Amino acid sequence: MLDIKFILENQKDVEEGLKKKGYTKNDLDINELIALHKDITKLKTSSQALAEEKNKISNSIKSANVEERQELINKSKALGEELKKEQEKLDAEQEKFKLLELKMPNMPSPDAPVGPDDSGNVVRRKVGEIPHFDFKPRDHIELMEINDWSEMERIAKISGSRTYAIKNDLAKLELAMHMMVLDKLRSHGFTVITVPSISKEKPLYGQGYLPFSRDEIYYMPEDDIYLSGTAELILNSLRADEILQENELPILYAGFSPCFRREAGAAGKDTRGLVRVHQFMKTEQFVICKNDIAESEKWHRKLLEISEEVLQDLELPYQVLDVCTGDMGAPKYRQYDLETWVPSQNCYRETHSCSNITDWQARRTNLRYRDNADGKVKFAHTLNNTGIATPRALVPFIENHQNADGSVNIPIKLQPYMGGKKVIGKNL
Fold first, then answer.
1. DSSP code of 402?
2. Catalytic residues, which ones?
3. Out of 208, 301, 359, 384, which residue is the most buried by the measure of CB atoms under 10 Å away?
4. Residue range 192-203: average pLDDT?
5. What is the DSSP track for 204-231?
6. CATH match of 4-103 with 1.10.287.40
7. DSSP for residue 427
8. Cis peptide leading into 211, omega within 30 of 0?
9. CA dist 189 to 77, 192, 254, 292, 356, Å?
10. CATH number, span 118-424
């Protein structure tokens, strides 16, 4: 959510930012938002004047003589009716304003590449060597089948498409990845926290899932509860409506939770295997820092650095993508994605997404802190990044580390979390 004062003082820049993010006047009319704000200001002023006049008359009734009293009572009632109509109009205008305000995206960084969609994303660097096999490599589905690592067909009969059940060493590998990443995040000063996968509606607006992506969210109407798509949703509202002290910042969370996404916009994409499933596990990095763009950009680089460390520890080739304005989504100020090489698809696929949200989320959750220098209360900045998300990360892992017999090598940094095993799979 953007500050209306900022919008009024920087209307041209905001309009340009909306354009860069692909918004048209049909999507969001900035002039309508400003007009509503002006109407609300006028209505508040007139309502306050009416209320003061009514109170003045009401206070004078007791001291008025009999002849004046009835006239004053009638005036008070008339003002009361007028005030009621003004208040109803004010409430309606404020509701319209709130709905428009919640649709207002964050402004993109001036350093973000400008583009209409993912075609405008820019590869900043590639890290690691793409493997060249001296045998015909298998895809992750075949590797799971020959190693008895999954029950994909059976689970689909029970739970439907885009679900998975993995077992034996692959199940241990999934948990080992999360443990390795959680230990890494602890070493970087993060507080490890497990959070629920269910949420009330308000935090979804706070994070920015709503009103933008309702079709991607599972909803249980009988309980009026939503299933969470990431620990970020919960962590973003964990300190909502609080006023922190600046010396409490930054707050670093390593959140772990099962996650749920409907994948409604992915019809026909990645219907087989582990790439795109409805339920998955995710370790999320989440940062709350002071309202200073240099500070949040520093943490943005740090979060990206940590995720690169994770992929390097897993010995996986990857590329860093600078996400363009039209592809980064409403809450984002700046976004980097890490895409990991998938041999069977001969391309890089996203495994991590790293975002600086500035104070856009904090304004929606009313998350503030008191500045040490001037004592002023300010909205915090928030950032998030994937630590590791499985089973998606398993796909490039087992495909890149496979051997001719279908076994899979375990990198040195992960071996302690796999009971010291150097290889898993076929004939072992």
1. B
2. 261, 276, 350, 353, 392
3. 384
4. 97
5. HHHHT-TTT-GGGS-EETTTTEEE-S-H
6. yes
7. T
8. yes
9. 63, 9, 9, 21, 19
10. 3.30.930.10
How confident is the model over 288-337, as pLDDT tens digits? 999 999 999 999 999 999 999 999 999 999 999 999 999 999 999 999 99
Task: Look up residue 117 and give its two tokens.
Answer: 């969609």
Domain ranges of the chain: 4-103, 118-424
Residue 334 sits at φ, ψ, to 5 deg, of: -150, 140
Residue type, position 181, single letter: V
Q: Which helix (H) or strand (E) holds 382?
A: strand 381-390
Q: What are the distances in angstroms from CA 111 to CA 126, 322, 324, 325?
A: 20, 10, 10, 10
- One-letter identity of residue 269: K
pLDDT for residue 266: 58
pLDDT over 90, % of the chain: 86
Spell out the residues 6+ positions from residue 332 whose beta carbon is closer than 8 angstroms to its own: 106, 108, 323, 355, 356, 357
pLDDT of res. 198: 97
- Preceding omega of 137 cis (within 30 degrees of 0): no
